[in-house]
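Name: Glutathione peroxidase
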Amino acid sequence: MSIYDFKVKNIDGEEVSLEEFKGKVIIIVNTASKCGFTPQFADLEKLYEKYNDKGLVILGFPSNQFLEQEPGSNSDVKSFCMLNYGVNFPMFEKVDVRGKNALPLFNFLTVAKGFKGFDLTKPQEKLLHSITSENYPEYLVDDSIKWNFTKFLIDRSGNIVERFESIVDPMSMEESIKSLLSL
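Structure predicted for Glutathione peroxidase:
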């Protein structure tokens, strides 16, 4: 199985085959509009604008699984992203990214690139670990998505190259992106 075997629905409910993105460098990210990491939309959009014409695409998947931080409809999400962050990269329907109802794409991603753990010497990671432990202790025992804005970087051949956890600022991914784009 490959990343290109998956079909998903875009934010407007239309089915999209990920094969459409074959030959591109892809970032797949689970998003939420009421999260402390929501400002990452701005940097994701900057990366998209800077490298889209060179072969980068970002695919955003809203999820309401973490403290109900994405409560709105798909239409609400689309409006929020455009009005607040000028998001032009493709957004998809609200989905579960972990658990029994998880979108199969996210199960595939997390099996390919597991969770490496929190670095508890870093304040942001320590805080996220604490919030996760308090609210969802069961999330800490596997490789699943731990929080909103987990990012997966995929090369032009569909290989899942890296997993970046929520606390990773999208701009810190730029060198990896440039390398995959051969810039």
